[in-house]
């Protein structure tokens, strides 16, 4: 299937400060893609460029095969977005916001009611937005991004200000919409949140894309470890090294797991040398560790 | 485009300042009319009617405030992103705001005219009639309509400048100040400007001189010798400068990073 979003060699600078350097990535329809990186890496800038809010020096952005730039917005008709903080008119009620931006008068009533129900914002939707808390505003901003059934939704830090219950509900809503075919590009620094949500991640640091990979590939690549505890760790380390088994940098005996039979071999090896294995732990890297590793490697390369 | 204008009007109608402006206008006009009723020697009832009991002057302030906030507000609330990322061209978004303000100014003019007629009928019905001759063999009603038209064209020259500055300054406070100061500055610097025009004829085409249109329409012989432009030239000058300022505003808005 053709990509819904293709970003090619995007370059952007503010004066002398280069904020995006040859940024290229793509998003396939129906996928949930996470855009991850430290503060100031350029996540919001990329999203703004995709939405035609920013001029850029070179490169191209295609949504559904159509060019997007500051003066070309036609492709954005089926895109919904929440960037930075939600834009809210304090003098309107939440309901009036939804009515204001609803496209199709005939279907909008039903559409609006669906969104209100799904995000559970009905209790305060008819109050003036200036009285909303941060979380309420955030939910209204998400509701506005999801209004009019967009094909492609861009959410910048959508979990900002949401309590754990609301976060979970939002996650379920995103997953169910994605099942129906909606594509998502979501940035976040709450990595544990993304982990439960995204199919793919794009890692960005200092304006460069470091990696685009599927979640499975990421967890496999940094993957699983065995941690052994023996009656004599020092001797065990020598034996393992002598056998050519690579140990991770750690004060524990940490070995990368390569196969299911690996453990049997290790136990045999140890008992051959009269060392008892006291305990075996499995360690699986979460997204956070994998990501930090990636960012560390990036810094090493420079 | 119609959708965008509908959305702008929706926001305008729900803003408190719209209701406050309307009520303030009516109250101020009533005060001026009652004063004119009580002190006819100080303020001429016919002249007050022509000036909409001060209404056309108050409208200038309300419109300057409205025009400077209609763009700056979006930046202040962060809603500009929601406006701009959608399928519309930036020019359409800006134009929808201009048209909304144009409709708003028409609303104020119609309101002040209708209310002036009501005040006249209630307070001055026996004093004068609309068909009385005011100046130059023209009836009160005729002079009223010409004055309204002149004020309206002049107002839009000022507003086009405010809409441009609202873009340059990126803050409504600055744009409001410059608009209002500029409005007063014309009367302060006009004597100086008339001297300069006397010396350098081409200076008569400067935009400040164009703002004399309303006063020249009501008193063409005196002001006409000072502005050195005919009424027609002034009207065209106003329209052209309005167009130029609006276009400059568009050029800035089009490339603005959000």
Automatic annotation (TrEMBL), chain A:
GO molecular function, one term: ATP binding
Top-level taxon of the source organism: Bacteria
PROSITE patterns in the cross-refs: ABC_TRANSPORTER_1, ABC_TRANSPORTER_2
Gene3D superfamilies membership: P-loop containing nucleotide triphosphate hydrolases
Record-annotated ABC transporter domain positions: 5-231
Alphabetical keyword list: ATP-binding, Nucleotide-binding, Transport
Family: Belongs to the ABC transporter superfamily.
Protein's name according to its UniProt entry: ABC transporter-like protein
Species of provenance: Liquorilactobacillus aquaticus DSM 21051
TrEMBL record, chain B:
Transmembrane segments: 20-38, 58-77, 98-123, 143-166, 173-197, 234-253
Name of the protein described by the UniProt record: ABC transporter permease
Pfam family, one: ABC2_membrane_4
Assigned keywords, A-Z: Membrane, Transmembrane, Transmembrane helix
